[in-house]
Every structure is written in structure tokens, then in C-alpha cells.
Amino acid sequence: MRIDLHTHSTASDGTDSPAELVRKARAQGLDVVALTDHDTTRGHKEAAAAVPEGLTLVTGAELSCRLDGTGLHLLAYLFDADEPALLAERELVRDDRVPRARAMVGKLQELGVDVEWDQVTRIAGDGSLGRPHIAEALVERGVVPTVSDAFTADWLADGGRAYVAKHELDPFEAIRLVKAAGGVTVFAHPLAVKRGKVVPESAIAELAAAGLDGIEADHMDHEPETRARLKGLAAELGLLATGSSDYHGSRKTCSLGEYTTDPEVYGEIIRRATGAFPVPGTGGVRA
Among 8, 16, 107, 250, who pairs with 20 as Cys (CB 3.0-4.6 Å)? Predict the structure, then answer.
């Protein structure tokens, strides 16, 4: 089985619609794909209606969190999307995205960068506004060559010249909320130092003690030695170790299934989840 547990669609900051994403996942030879858009489940219904035969969809989200001033992302799988407490927190994050994005555009303009709000909203479309959309506007204006190059101290990285903070969950509270909604939690790209500051391994141990289920070890932003260290850390802490592409369509260079999760680990995630069930493919025809 080929299992990719971290992808994004146009419901947040990917470039493929949820339906396109699941079709591409099967075309790429995947057996299981998780849709984990940022702080939203808005793409789940469309993706579930389009799952082709031979593919299973895992519903989820990537939750924005912050611990002691350091941002981190928590992948949440198979939770009840209608559970009120978790839904309320996701809506707080979502509602903060527009004023935050406007403030970042304003900062860029103060820095002399010719980025316009209408340009950013055009790029975002119906997606949940975020830094990648502003980064793409910087690419369009020729300020940086790629989206990744916008995530530096000069521009949009945490603490960067144009960075603006947003509402983010405390990760310990996020774990509690996801668990209460029947879901499973995995720390996304925990040692991706190229993205900026990361939390120390001692914090990962504390999160594990609080109920974290796993850590994403195999990821494009982890060097081989980092992947090996994370797998060792997972074994030390009794955590599941996953692998995923973090696919964003054309917005990033990675491809679907570039990194995958062991079937036994996937089976354990399914066993632990009680909030929702994976969606088996029906050829994209659903009553």
C-alpha cells in the first residue's frame, strides 16, 4: 500500500480542487490519501464525492498552533468535524486570516513592494487566505523566484519584516480538543529548521505525554539524518512515525506520494480514531 497522509487543496492553499486532488492521488498510484487543509474541513465533502475506486480518503486538517512563541502545525485525522469546541477554535483561526493577510500586505507596501490586496485575493480564490498566497504574489511581482524563497526573515517567515501573527491554538489544548472529537494527532514536520525556529525535542516529549499520537518523520523539509533522528525519537517516546508529501499542487515542488506512511502505522491511526471513518472509493459516483 502507498499511503500519503498530508495534502492540501484549494480549500486552503493548494492549487488542486479537492476532487482533482483525489483523482491525481489515484493516478499517482496511491492507495490512501489524507486531505489536511489548514484549519478547515471545507474540502472534505467535495473530495469524498470524487474518491475514485482503489483509493481511500482520510479526512483531516492541519491545525495552526504556537508554543512559547514558536509556531507548529498539528495534523488531526478522522475527528468529528462538527464537534462544537474544536469547530469553534478552527473558526477563530479562520476568521483571523483575512485581517492578518491585509496587515501583511500593508507591511509589504510599507517596504516598497508593489503587492495589492486584490492580487492576493485573486490568487487565494475560495481558499483560506494564508502566507502562501501572499508569497505567490511576491513571485508574480518578481520579488522572489519561488514561494519558498518568500519564507525568509526578509519577508514572511515567523518574525520576518512582513510577518503578522494570527490566532493559533495552544498545542496541548489542540491535542485535547482533537481527542475529544475522536481524532488522532500527528506533529507535522517537527524539525523543519529550514522553515525557521522549531520547538525543542523536550517539548515533543511533553506533547507525547499529553496524548500526541505521532510525529511526521519522512518529509521533504527533513534531511536524511533528521528523519532517522525523528524515527528514533518516536520509538523512544512511543509515538507513531508517519511519512507524507505535504503536497500543495503547483505551489510546491513535491509530488503526491513523494514520502509515504507504513501500512501498519496507518492501521494504528485508523484503530485509534473514533470521530470519523475513512472514505472508500466508489468511482466518484455517490448518492
Answer: 16
Instruction: Report CA Rg, the chain.
Output: 18
Among candidate residues 236, 246, 231, the one with its CA nearest the CA of residue 195: 246
- C-beta separation of 248 from 15 below 8 A: yes
User: For residue range 166-219, what is the model confidence (pLDDT) as tens digits?
Assistant: 889 999 999 999 999 999 999 999 999 888 789 999 999 999 999 999 999 999
Query: Amino acid letter at 11?
Result: A
**pTM, 2 dp:** 0.88
The pLDDT-based confidence of 284 (bands split at 50, 70, 90) is low
CA 209 from centre of chain: 23
| Closest among 209, 212, 202 to 241, alpha carbons compared | 212
Q: Write the DSSP assignment of 1-67 as a string of letters.
A: --EEEEE--TTTT-SS-HHHHHHHHHHTT-SEEEE--BT--TTHHHHHHHPPTT-EEEEEEEEEEEE
